[in-house]
Amino acid sequence: MKRRSLFAALALSVLCAHAPSYGAEPEVVKIGFVGPLTGPVARVGKDLQYGAQLALDDENAKHPTVGGKPVKFVLDVQDDQADPRVAIQVAQKLVDDGVVGVIGHYNSGCSIPASTVYHQANVAMITPGSTNPQLTKQGFKNVFRTMGHDGVGGVVAGHFVVEQIKAKRIGIIDDRTAFGQGLADAFEKGAKEAKGNIVDREFTNDKAVDFRAILTTLKSKNVDVIFFGGLDEQGAMLVKQMRSLGMPALLFGAGALKSNAFLQIAGPAGEGTQDLEPGPALDKLPAAQEFGKRYKARFNQDVELYAPFAYDATLAMLKAIHDANSLDRQKIVDSLAKVNVTGITGKITYDPYGDLIKPPYTLFEVQQGQWKSIKTVGGSGV
């Protein structure tokens, strides 16, 4: 009996050793998220974070596996405070934490220096908000984004103002950040290509609150459109001061003005403001509307602006991991270059630089205190 019991125990041990580990605890896989979670644009950072988290929630509900083993994806969240120096520090922390990829950063001024850190560690980086062309011009094979860059969007905006709005005398203001100045440069290029008349270009900084001296100068030159290269809160203050000075000019932006914060600050003065945003007309897409409902149910707030782009960045990262069937950083980078997935904001496929192929842009206008989509140009289908 003892010998048979011993044989049975050994047989059971062998069977257990070779049995599938269906009940095994899943391996925790870290995906980094980094954005401005404190400071003036913290609301944007949280919007991005929640978009990425919702994508991970959806994925984990499917009980995913990689390489035949169960995994659970978690978000390693870091705050770069919209400060390039802090961005480099938290980028290194994410690398040291062992993340297999990173969703972020938001500000181009943070993404560009941080991308070097990720490049040296072969960590895939997908930014859902940085649009400065210089980010992907560096030639790093690990850097991608989920919205069109300013080299395209700014030029499209320049053509639009001249050809569609029929502006005769155009003024430009930029905030001298990597984002604002780069966007204004691209807009100026597009406007000149369309034979537009740029009568003046002024600049401020991203901390300024009083633009009356600049606006007085532009008013004296009879501008009918002012293009602003900068972020939404300053844009809202700018349009209020334009109206207080009795300026009839239209304020036009590209990828920076459309937000709830702009509407709250600008109030009635913002009526008629136009902004050309990366992405499709999300306010008219059933998939985006359903996303908004799920987002609010999960986080008890409405989508601010960028959450769908963060969701899609995370979706692309997860697709690349599954296509590679590996958690190896280099294999994920290689897989991302070939990824093909349709998300909330449209089809995500990349050119050799990590930029979207045929990114869409949508013109929005403030009508009766709400941003309304007017027209979409470009895009490869949603």
What order do the helices and strands come in, and which of them pair?
Elements: H1 2-18, E1 27-35, H2 42-60, E2 65-66, E3 69-79, H3 84-97, E4 101-103, H4 108-120, E5 124-127, H5 134-137, E6 143-145, H6 150-163, E7 170-174, H7 178-193, E8 198-203, H8 212-220, E9 225-229, H9 232-244, E10 250-254, H10 260-266, E11 274-278, H11 286-299, H12 307-324, H13 329-336, E12 341-343, E13 346-348, E14 360-367, E15 370-378
Parallel strand pairs: 1-3, 1-4, 4-5, 5-6, 7-8, 7-9, 9-10, 10-11
Antiparallel strand pairs: 2-3, 11-14, 12-13, 14-15
Helix pairs in contact: 2-12, 3-4, 6-7, 9-10, 12-13
Order of helices and strands: HEHEEHEHEHEHEHEHEHEHEHHHEEEE
CATH architecture of the largest domain: 3-Layer(aba) Sandwich
| Rg for CA atoms | 24 Å
Quantity of strands, as a count = 15
Strand content bin: 15-25%
How would you explain this protein's 3D organization?
Helix content is 43%, strand content 21%. The chain is α/β, with parallel strands linked by helices and 382 residues long. The protein is elongated and about 70 Å long. The chain is built from 13 helices and 15 strands. Strands 8-7-9-10-11-14-15 form a 7-stranded mixed beta sheet, with helices on one face. Strands 2-3-1-4-5-6 form a 6-stranded mixed beta sheet, with helices on both faces. Strands 12-13 form a two-stranded antiparallel sheet. The protein has 2 domains: 27-148 and 284-359, 3-Layer(aba) Sandwich (Rossmann fold); 151-278, Rossmann fold. Residues 1-19 form the signal peptide. This is ABC transporter substrate-binding protein. Keywords: Amino-acid transport, Signal, Transport.
